[in-house]
Amino acid sequence: MLIHFGNVPLLVISCPQVTNDIVKTYNPNFANRLKLKPVDIYLNGGRDILFASYGEDWKNLKSLCMVHLLNNKMVRSFEKLREEEIKVLTKKLEEACSSSSPVYLRKLLLTLTSDIICRITLGRKYNSEEGGTIYKNLEMASSEFFGKFFVGDFFPSLAWIDRISGIEDEMKDVNNKLNGFLDSIVQEHVDAADHEEPSDFVDILLSIQKDQTKRFELDRATTVTLLEWTMTELMRHLECMKKLRDEISSVSAHNSYVTEKEVEKMDCLHCVIKEGLRLHPSGPLLSRIFTEDIQLKGYDIAAGTQVIINAWSIQRNPDIWGHDAEEYKPERHFGSNIDFIGSDPKFIPFGGGRRRCPGIGFAMVLSKLTLANLVKQFNWRVMVGPGVDDDKPDLAEAPGIDVCRKFPLIVFPSLVHA
Ligand code: HEM
């Protein structure tokens, strides 16, 4: 479907056959993303890996990530660190159980993933006095900016509306604060000149490029969003929660902590997460921009046409997934060979082709481990309030680059073995 959105031609693709041509082709003309106002202002024109134009800079960033962070060996090497941080999370939940207090699950999960990612990339955690809170607030602000409509993106002659509305200044301000925070981290590493070996990712970047540090952010919100939606669905489908808990308890019968080795043996857990990725892909609209005139399925498409691949709609299409496509049914994946790593255009929660997500291994191990520990050790009851129908969390979505719940999931945990 081609829409003229203001001055911008926008091609929306909702069928797997065409998606296949776009994401799997080796044509580099399909490997750029569209850059809207927040990328320009908030992400300095898109020099980060997600929005970098396809070319040398992007290739260098991607290879840095793969070599030093996201390959299987590196992901496995963070096992101890994940265990320590998940134990911090379950300790907080135990305290909430003993005081019967409600918890805002997304906030706890964001702290978990922030702390893990800060330890891996920056060498340590940042508490509220040191900038941890500012980092979290800025990250949240950034997902809000990405959900906003900027008039100038589609009607360039009306770009002044964005300027007088104050939103541009707000983004510049948040960007300055974030850069200040990241600069202080880099300075901290430069000052600690006694490191014999690079010990974290910032050290590695500094040792590779002493005077040209590049900004690098790891994606943590998407993993949290997957976990939050999966917990939402499990609390709506208590029979799935029970099945999952039975599997976890039979594979991990001894200690309260579920280990990574045990998690690898859990099929039901895998299907529960897979179904969460299908119904609630955290990046539901994949973006590309054609840099040259091309032919697609017999149509001539002009250079500059922006493309949105609607993964959300493909993953709910009844022709592909059956009449119950809208329902949360992890069992549909038992014995199924449809994978989600980008090779099958029917299921693309991590995108596909050259710009496919490089964090799949990282995200999967952390999501499975966290979910297994949350379900094994705690019962969950949702707090009645906005976003809750019939004692069950609803499925309303918020706008943003990462589509999370509209209303916070506030829950009361209680110990399974009290
Ligand atoms: C459940 C969790 C996650 C989901 C659903 C997810 C999804 C996605 C999607 C849809 C894209 C765009 C792909 C495309 O356009 O074809 C993407 C890109 C990306 N993701 Fe993820 N992601 C997740 C976790 C992570 C994690 C944990 C990391 C890093 C540790 C990460 C790093 C990246 C990067 C660097 C890109 C940009 C790749 C490029 O443009 O070359 N992601 N992700």
Automatic annotation (TrEMBL):
Localization per record: Membrane
Its membrane topology: Single-pass membrane protein
Matches recorded under Pfam families: p450
SUPFAM superfamilies: Cytochrome P450
Cofactor: heme
UniProtKB keywords: Heme, Iron, Membrane, Metal-binding, Monooxygenase, Oxidoreductase, Transmembrane, Transmembrane helix
Binding positions for heme per the UniProt entry: 357
Cellular component terms per the entry's GO annotation: membrane
GO molecular function: heme binding; iron ion binding; monooxygenase activity; oxidoreductase activity, acting on paired donors, with incorporation or reduction of molecular oxygen
Top-level taxonomic group: Eukaryota
Alphabetized Gene3D superfamilies for the sequence: Cytochrome P450
CDD domains named in the record: CYP71-like
UniProt xrefs under InterPro entries: Cyt_P450 (IPR001128), Cyt_P450_CS (IPR017972), Cyt_P450_E_grp-IV (IPR002403), Cyt_P450_sf (IPR036396)
Record family assignment: Belongs to the cytochrome P450 family.
Protein's name in the database: Cytochrome P450
Organism for this UniProt entry: Capsella rubella
